C-alpha cells in the first residue's frame, strides 16, 4: 500500500512538472507574438497619421482644379468633400462648379488650373484663360465673400512630355500671368516649383500627372497657408 502511494505521488509530481515546463515554454512565445502584434499596430497607426493630419489641417478647405488637383482625393490624402476637380477642367469650365463650391462653403479655396487651359485651341490661350480665371475669382468673391482664395502655379512636365506636346513650353508664361492675376484680384499666389527644385521621381508614366509622393510634398508646402 505504501509502495502504491509512492508511485501515485511520483506520477502526480511528474505531471505537474511537465505542465509547468510547458507553460514556461509557451509564455515567451506568447509574449513575442503580442509584442510583434503591438509593433505592427503602432506601425499601421504611424503610417496613417500623415493622411489623418492633412485631413484635419485642410478640413475647411476645398481644392478646385483639373486632373492634377484631382490626384489629392484619388490618392486618398484628402476626402472627396475637400476636392472639386476633374479631367479636362479649365477656368471656363470651372465656372460651372460655383454652385457646388458655394454649398461646401469653405474657409479657403486653393485653385490650380492651367494644364488644360494652355492647350485650348484659340489664338491666345493664356489671355483667354485669364479672362475666365478673373470671372471665376469674381464669382467666388460674390458667393463666398469670407472665403480666402489662393492660386497655385501649374506644375512642370517632363522633357519627354514637352516633346510630345510643345505647348507645355508656355507653362512659365502662364504661371507669370496667374501670379499677376492674383495681385490684381487680392488673392494669394503659391509657386510650386520648390517641390521640384531637387529633381523628382514624382511623375506618372505620362510625365504630366503625379504619384502620391508629390501630393504629400504639396500639402506640406501649403499647410501653413491653411492655418
TrEMBL record:
Residues 33-42 have a biased composition (Polar residues). Residues 63-215 form the SGNH hydrolase-type esterase domain. Gene3D superfamilies: SGNH hydrolase. Residues 30-52 are annotated as: Disordered. Residues 1-21 form the signal peptide. Transmembrane segments: none annotated. CDD domains: NnaC_like. Keywords: Signal. It comes from the Bacteria. This is Lipase. It comes from Paenibacillus cookii.
Amino acid at each position: 500500500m505504501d509502495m502504491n502511494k509512492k508511485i501515485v505521488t511520483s506520477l502526480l509530481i511528474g505531471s505537474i512538472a511537465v505542465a509547468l515546463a510547458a507553460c514556461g515554454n509557451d509564455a515567451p512565445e506568447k509574449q513575442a507574438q503580442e509584442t510583434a502584434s503591438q509593433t505592427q499596430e503602432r506601425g499601421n497607426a504611424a503610417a496613417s497619421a500623415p493622411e489623418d493630419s492633412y485631413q484635419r489641417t485642410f478640413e475647411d478647405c476645398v481644392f478646385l482644379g483639373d486632373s492634377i488637383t484631382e490626384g489629392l482625393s484619388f490618392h486618398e490624402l484628402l476626402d472627396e468633400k475637400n476636392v472639386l476637380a476633374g479631367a479636362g477642367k479649365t477656368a471656363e469650365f470651372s465656372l460651372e462648379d460655383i454652385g457646388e463650391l458655394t454649398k461646401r462653403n469653405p474657409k479657403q479655396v486653393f485653385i490650380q488650373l492651367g494644364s488644360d487651359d494652355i492647350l485650348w485651341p484659340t489664338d491666345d490661350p493664356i489671355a483667354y484663360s485669364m479672362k475666365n480665371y478673373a470671372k471665376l475669382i469674381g464669382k467666388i468673391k460674390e458667393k463666398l465673400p469670407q472665403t480666402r482664395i489662393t492660386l497655385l502655379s501649374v506644375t512642370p512636365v517632363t522633357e519627354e512630355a514637352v516633346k510630345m506636346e510643345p505647348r507645355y513650353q508656355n507653362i512659365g508664361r502662364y504661371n507669370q500671368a496667374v501670379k499677376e492675376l492674383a495681385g490684381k484680384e487680392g488673392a494669394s499666389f503659391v509657386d510650386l516649383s520648390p517641390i521640384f527644385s531637387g529633381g523628382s521621381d514624382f511623375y506618372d508614366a505620362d510625365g504630366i500627372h503625379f504619384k502620391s509622393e508629390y501630393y504629400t510634398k504639396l500639402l506640406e508646402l501649403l499647410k501653413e497657408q491653411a492655418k
